[in-house]
Amino acid sequence: MQQESLVSIFINACLINNFVLAYFLGICPFLGVSGKLGTAVRMGGAVTFVMLVTSVCAFGIQTLLNWIDAPYLQLISFIAVIASTVQLVEMFIKKTSPILFRQLGIFLPLITTNCAILGLALFQTNKEYGFWQSLVFALGAGVGFTLALILIAGLREKLELARLPDLARGTAITLVLAGLLSLCFMGFAGLDGG
Amino acid sequence: MISNDVEISSADEFLKGVFAQNPVFVQVLGMCPVLAVSNTAINALAMGLATSFVLAMSNLSVALLRHWVPKQVRIVTFILVIATFVTIVDYVIQALSLELHRALGAFISLIVANCLILGRAEAFASKQTLSRSMLDATGMGLGFTIALLCLGCVRELLGSGSLFGVNLLGSHFQPWVVMILPAGGFFTLAGWVLLLNWIHQRRQAGRMTRNH
């Protein structure tokens, strides 16, 4: 895995194996928050940032765990790091920019239970990425997540004006849209070989 | 709060997780594992059972600890409790069947981040008695497993023409490959949600005409 170039890792995490549309990670905010375009962009930004921080921390922890030979502590330490990172980011934003803090509101603490972040930490460990590879992987995953969120938010804003049967309103139509987007993203699979 | 609880019978406490408040179809919680591992019925069943176990054990522990955990650190405490049980499940599945462990992959570890479990711990087990928390957890776990099986059976039957690994539709059946792909998960779930919405609407319409 060491030979995998940074560009290929980025494209892979962002488009080919998009976290939301191929791995189903982070579906909860995807369905819950994607009603408005503005919120989707901010949510994507916050998640990307937490992903980057988590990626660095997870890399450090994995090195430490390998050193003391305690793989069974992996999950517990990862989730503890993510929870405290989110808490830290929350306090930092609150201190430096109260306006942004109010805009993000409840979404900030909810990032803790976003499986995309824990998934990222687990995947980068499984793939045995180095430091820079992990960082680029996190960036790609974050950009991919934001992209999926923005796309579905745009579609849902248009849906407000469409004439839908009452039956399909809400969750059902969003799931169908997500399925169609997922089909579209399968088209990127060809990039892998080239 | 307390007078309200007495009115709900134990049976209702158990059944609400299966029907009225089904975690997947009604509350739309814990979607990531639901969509990701429901491509075959066996994976879906294993995932459902693993999640139910973690849910029951974490509800049990949280209900036991609820008087000693300070309010400020409760979320972190709950998450650590959940992570401990998930680690146990992870190692148990690895010991029982390596093949299953490989099929489910990182999604066993990701049970930690299932918002259903943290949600039940925070909203129910941290405020209720031990027995009620257990009833709630088993009911919710059963509802979750049933929902996963609903998706898993449909996707496996259409996607590879078999059920629990047994070929049912014969060799002439052209499998719908899209059903085992990620997109199929979204479509199948959308189908079930539509069906349940329709049943719900029919029922309400029936009730309205009876009242008039």
Strand pairing plus helix content of chain B: what structural class? mainly alpha
The separation of the N and C termini of chain A measures 17 Å
| Total DSSP helices of chain B | 10
Work out the largest interface and the residue count of each chain: A-B, 41 and 40 residues
Radius of gyration of chain A from CA coordinates: 18 Å
Number of strand elements of chain A: 0
Question: How do the strands line up in the largest sheet of chain B?
Answer: 1-2
Mean pLDDT of chain A: 81
Order of helical and strand elements of chain A: HHHHHHHHH
Averaged pLDDT of chain B? 82
Number of helices of chain A: 9
Biggest sheet details of chain A = none
Order of helices and strands of chain B: HHHHHHHHEEHH
Q: pLDDT under 50 segments of chain B (min length 5)?
A: 1-6
Major sheet characteristics of chain B: 2 strands, antiparallel
Could you explain how this protein is built, in words?
The complex is a heterodimer of chains A (194) and B (212). Chain A is mainly α and 194 residues long. Helices cover 72% and strands 0% of the residues of chain A. Chain A has 9 helices and no strands. In chain A, helix 1 packs parallel to helix 8 and helix 4 crosses helix 5. Chain A is globular, with a radius of gyration of 18 Å. The two termini of chain A are 17 Å apart. With 212 residues, chain B is mostly helical. Helix content of chain B is 72%, strand content 2%. Chain B contains 10 helices and 2 strands; from the N terminus they run ααααααααββαα. A two-stranded antiparallel ribbon of chain B has the order 1-2. In chain B, a hairpin with a 2-residue loop joins strand 1 and strand 2. In chain B, helix 2 packs parallel to helix 8, helix 4 runs antiparallel to helix 8 and helix 5 crosses helix 7. The longest helix of chain B is centred in the last third of the chain and has 31 residues. The radius of gyration of chain B is 19 Å and the shape is flat. The N terminus of chain B is likely disordered. At the A-B interface, helix 2, helix 4, helix 7 and helix 9 of A face helix 3, helix 5 and helix 10 of B.
